[in-house]
Amino acid sequence: MAAAGAELQGKYQKLAQEYSKLRAQNQVLKKGVVDEQANSASLKEQLKMKDQSLRKLQQEMDSLTFRNQQLAKRVELLQDELALSEAKGKKNKKSGEPSSQLSQEQKSVFDEDLQKKIEENERLHIRFFEADEQHKHLEAELKNRLEVLETDAAQHQAVVDSLTRKYTDTIEKLQNDKTKLEIKSQTLEREAKECRFRAEECQQQLKNLHADLGRRLDDSLCIINEKVPFNDTRSSQYNALNVPLHNRRCQLKLRDIAGQALAFVQDLVTALLNFHTYMEQRVQIFPIDSATDTISPLNQKFSQYLHENASYVRPLEEGMLHLFESITEDTVTVLETTVKLKVFSEHLTSYTCFLRKILPYQLKSLEEECESSLCTAALRARNLELHNDMKKITAVFEKLHVYISLIVLPSIKPEGLLRTNYSSVFTYIAADLHGFHNVMKGENKRGVSNLKWAIS
């Protein structure tokens, strides 16, 4: 429950960190939206000012148009006056040269004034046209920018709304998790109180049991001191002189068990010989065939070590055979008398050292094979499984070597292993052999070898 609470607390902290990160992003987006809104307001203000400028120009245009109309009327009036003047000039042709000169000067003045007004009107038309075109261009540009800014503002607002919804959901989820954690914390506190109460009760019971056992021990010691005049079980030297009881039925049963163990060891020896020989042949032909090419120095050394496997494996069978032959109907077989077990233990130690010696070469050879271009994916997977199983097999033999060394102790050093620990050591040996059996059964299923192991 503590682990679950810690996991929920970690999850809560992770969600809180994510919320803080999203909140910071939200602040950035909000600032961006505000900036865009300010920019949009500024552009709207500029558009408003441009509209005012356009209206002012429009008013000037209207004023110029009105003035142009006045000038046009004045020109017409002047033309009428000129025509009238010309008509009068024809009638008063005889009035003399001074009158004609005056009319000509007036006409020249009128023409010059008219030409100036026409040029001024043209300039005003050109300025109005240019101002109108500039205003239209600026208005279109500002409208486009306004549309883009409005689109960006809408997108930012959509992102803000989405993040707000997400933050709301996250906050609700965090609040729900917090509520659940609080409820679970309260439950754990109640359970802790109950456990403390039960622990106090157990401690009190333990104290009472200690007191009761102390009293019973004192009573037993008083009885032993009064009733037992001599007790030699405290000395291991005296215990070594005890003659064990002879039981023919027990001897036959032990011989039968030793025979089964001998058969199992024989099968094991055969299987190990086949296994190491198979590995040697495999190294010689894959991934490089030694008949046609030179294999790597690693595989050469590995093959050389594998070639020596018989000198380490066969003594196991010989040691177990000597142990079996030492158990007869007439002998008394206990751990203190099975001196032949030491020989088997030494052979097992030698083979375990051999496995430890070849294990690095075995692992490196498999890795080298996996790196070869000829190695398929399926074979690479099988090699990796064999890689792990070889480590397990070596570990099993190392444990078995330790346990066999322990049960050898009573025959060479009686005080090295207490009788109360005999059953525990044999239990560990059985468990180790079962583990070995499971490993090799997996190897058989995967097709590494077709050996049949007789270990149960």
Explain this structure.
The chain has 456 residues and is mostly helical. The protein has two domains: 2-195, Helix Hairpins (Orthogonal Bundle); 247-446. Helix content is 84%, strand content 0%. It has nine helices and no strands. The protein has helices spanning 2-91, 97-227, 236-240, 248-285, 297-307, 310-326, 341-371, 377-412, 422-446. Helix 4 (248-285) runs antiparallel to helix 5, helix 6 runs antiparallel to helix 7 and helix 8 runs antiparallel to helix 9 (422-446). It is elongated.
Chart the SSEs and their pairings.
Elements: H1 2-91, H2 97-227, H3 236-240, H4 248-285, H5 297-307, H6 310-326, H7 341-371, H8 377-412, H9 422-446
Protein name: Protein phosphatase 1 regulatory subunit 21
Biased composition (Polar residues): 97-107
GO cellular component, one term: early endosome
Task: Provide a quick synopsis of the model.
The protein folds into two domains: 2-195, Helix Hairpins (Orthogonal Bundle); 247-446. It has nine helices and no strands. The chain has helices at residues 2-91, 97-227, 236-240, 248-285, 297-307, 310-326, 341-371, 377-412, 422-446.
Task: Give helix and strand order, one letter per element, not per position.
Answer: HHHHHHHHH
Query: How many domains?
Result: 2
Please report the number of helical segments: 9
Structural class: mainly alpha
Q: Tally the beta strands.
A: 0
Query: Portion of residues in helices?
Result: over 70%
Note the gap between the termini. 39 Å
In angstroms, what is the radius of gyration?
56 Å
Q: How much strand content do the residues show? A: under 5%
Global geometry: elongated
The main sheet comes to: none
Low-confidence stretches: 447-456
What does the average pLDDT come to? 78
Pfam families: KLRAQ, PPP1R21_helical
Coiled coil: 139-205
Region (Disordered): 87-110
GO molecular function: RNA binding
